[in-house]
Amino acid sequence: MQKKYLTIYQDLVLKIQDNYWPKQTMLPSENELTEMYTTSRETIRKALNLLAQDGYIQKIRGKGSVVIDINKFDFPVSGIVSFSELAEKLNLSTQTIVNELILLKADQSLQNMLHLNLTDKVWKVVRSREIDGEKVILDKDFLDEKVVPTLTKEICEDSIYRYLENELGLTISFARKEIVVEEPTEEDRQLLDLEGYSNVVVIKSLVYLDDASLFQYTESRHRPDKFRFVDFARRINE
Hints:
By secondary structure, the protein is of the alpha+beta class.
């Protein structure tokens, strides 16, 4: 016999999919759902937790659960895709806001990550990515000045990778990535629309050229409701 919280979860999913509760509307409270399904509050919480895990709702502290858009954008994890390329592919209405562009001396952490010397400098680029009028991605890039001697605000508003490949003739080859879920920083809250969201999904990448030289460290910090992070895997039989 199926556990009751799973039955409730499946019924809630059907209601959301049938637009009984449209996106951006609040689900009934836990107490109301308890009465609706004649069950315990703990059972309702288990069903809601599963809804949140599967991307149907976002729990907002002190308010309840809001239905989010189940048609998330697929963000490819295994590939190296710039935001502008993704926006063009998905035909999104976007804007890039350059919050910071500065050439600075690499601190100890960046020296270690990018294998830099004490006197080496890096470009620090902080950009908010807006989709349909909402700031949902914060990109923080650090690029080795020896590889990228010049950057402008106009380049950063367009596409850094397009500039590197088309103007500088560089070939971006591969990246090592780590995906973590973190609490938003103060910077995240200032530069993203995060009201009600208690986590951000962070993709940390070390990016290499075709000669295997490391030239970039980036953190791409995402609001969790807009993207589904996808990969393709193939089993290799030995």
